Amino acid sequence: MGVTFEEFRAGLEEREQRRKLLSSNGRPFFVLISQQFSRSEIESLCDTATAIRRLDRQLDGRDFLRNVLRGQRIMNLFAQPSTRTAESFVAAADKLGAISRIVSDLRTSSFSKGESVEDSVRTLSSFFDAIVTRHSDDEFAMRAAWALSQTGRPIPVISAGSGKSQHVTQSLLDIYTLRYSFSQRGGVDGKNVVIIGDIARNRAARSLAYLLTRFEKPRIFFVSPAAFAPDDELLSYLRRHEVENTTRSALGPLLREVGHDIDAIYVTRLQQEWDKGGGIPDSGERGSSEEFVMEPSYRKLVRPDCVLMHPLPRINELPESWEDHPGFVVWRQVRNGMWIRAALFAAVNGADAEIRHRALRLGLLE
Ligand code: CP
Fold it and tell me: Does the predicted model carry a pTM greater than 0.85?
């Protein structure tokens, strides 16, 4: 029997229901929120990403990868601007042999004539094998997944950024990057992470905080303007998962107090586009005030092995002078976006175990 959209949305709150609604045959089918991933699924995705990255260095490996999704067609429906996410999804699909199409101007589609999300995605499911979607509406991807789940021929929906709510694939690439950075330091467990930005409306920051709950005893220090402090839903989830956290209103005093204990700093820009409803902010208004900027003078306050991250795009909050800091991994994050998204496509299609086994046989994976 079918479920209403309200029932579908409510079901995502509870672990077992969430698994039933978002998974198929024990693998992710709809990819909407960080909370849907267990620790073992995260580890397995990261291993698959590493296997793909290493296989891609070999001619035979590249040929093998190109057959993984051969013949599949992927629709990338981007109703908000994107450089990294859109292009890395296309590059990831290319690596696995799938064909991608990007629609980035919804005025060219029948959405502009008032067509419903339900009819639109059902139509797209006739021509494509998966839909990747970014939208300013927090619930667009969720509604698309629900609509397709009610049909006899559902196809996977992967959120590439849902309004102010979540950016699940960004958080997966961020955790993959952290895991690599901490590979010689006991992994992500027990690490002290600073997350800077307007957390309440920054989907990358929120998704990362949710995903960190899958690790043992992380501590999160949010630094955020009071008006955009972490929302109650996120804070209550962190409490339920016993993740110690605190919110500060400026970065400098925090780093002067505990800078040498910090293992990673995740900087984000202030999301000023939301002041105008999600469009593009006026250039005069862009940029963070000094409380939320990694000032070059903070260098002596952080350890040389502190990992410095940013989901990009950046404005003024992580100046270029940090690029020669040994912990600066922002460009690695960008590359990892392609590998983790390829791993996700493989997992959704049930092809990930074969990729890992091949890499293991070739000694490319421990
Ligand atoms: N990190 C990120 O989502 O970048 P884009 O907006 O360019 O996709």
Answer: yes
